[in-house]
Amino acid sequence: MTVDLGDLMRTRRAIRKFRPGPVPAEDVREVLEAARWAPSPANVQPARFIWVRAPSVKERLQELARESKEMSAYWDASFAPDGPSGLVNDMITPETIAVVSDPAKSLTNVNDENGFEWAAAMSIYAMWLRAHSLGYGGVFVQHWLADDAKRLLNVPRLWRFLGVFTFGHSGEAKEQTRLPFDDVVFVDRFPGAPRPR
Ligand SMILES: Cc1cc2nc3c(=O)[nH]c(=O)nc-3n(C[C@H](O)[C@H](O)[C@H](O)COP(=O)(O)O)c2cc1C
Q1: Domain membership flag for residue 187
Q2: Could you tell me the CATH number of the domain that includes residue 73?
C-alpha cells in the first residue's frame, strides 16, 4: 500500500508516550538512513547520529532529561513538574537517537555560518517522517543541558548537541492544528502598509 507523502506530513505528530516492545533493528536502520540522506550545504554532511542502546546510558540520559527540565524551571515555572511543559520525555521505552553536528563543517556565508545546524534539523525531520511512515510515533527533544549530554555521549567539545530523537510504538493518539494557510503564506510581499522610506 502506498501512502501519500502529503498525508504522512499532515498526520505526523509529536508522540511522547510509548508502549514497550522492541523496534526491529532494520526499522531503526531505515530511520537512520533517512537522516543520512538528508541534504546539507554543499553536501558536507556535518551531522552525526548516536543510537543510544545501552540501558545504563539510557538511564543516565533519562536522569539528565529530568535535570534539564529542573534547570529550566528555575527560570520558567512552566517547566516545573506540574507546569504545562513539565513532562520529562521518556528516554527508556523508545529508541533514542542523539543528533550532533560539527560547526567546522559550515560554509563561509556572509550572513550566517550555521548550515551545520540547518543540516542536522533536516535530518531530524527526515527521521521523524520516516518513523511515522513505518508506523511508529516519535518526538524530537531539544531540551537538554547540552554540555552534560556531550560528556555522557563522548561528543567532541566544539560540536553542537542538537538533541535526541525518540521513536517507538506509540502509546497515545494526538491531534494538532496549524495556523490557517493564508496566515502563514503570503504572495509577493509581507502584508501591511509599507514603511515610509
Ligand atoms: C525544534 C523542536 C524542538 C522540540 N523540542 C521538544 C522537546 O524538547 N520536548 C518535547 O516533548 N517536544 C518537543 N518538540 C515537539 C513539539 O512540541 C511539537 O512538534 C509541536 O507541539 C507540534 O506538534 P506536532 O509535532 O504533533 O504537530 C520539539 C519540536 C521541534 C520542531
Answers
A1: no
A2: 3.40.109.10
Task: Name the residue of 13, 142, 174 whose CB sits within 8 Å of the most ligand 1 atoms, as the mutation to test its pocket.
Answer: 142
Q: Which residues line ligand 1 (CB under 6 A)?
A: 13-14, 16, 89, 139-143, 174, 176
Residues 6+ apart with CB under 8 A from 62: 88, 90, 91, 92
The verdict on residue 4 lying in a domain is: no
| AA letter at 180 | P
What per-residue confidence (pLDDT) applies to 132? 98
Q: Which domain holds residue 121?
A: 15-173
Query: From start to end of the chain, where are the E strands?
Result: 18-19, 47-52, 95-101, 137-141, 160-170
Among protein residues, the one with the nearest Cα to ligand 1's atom 7 is: 141
pLDDT tens-digit map of 22-79: 999 999 999 999 999 999 999 999 999 999 999 999 999 999 999 999 999 999 999 9
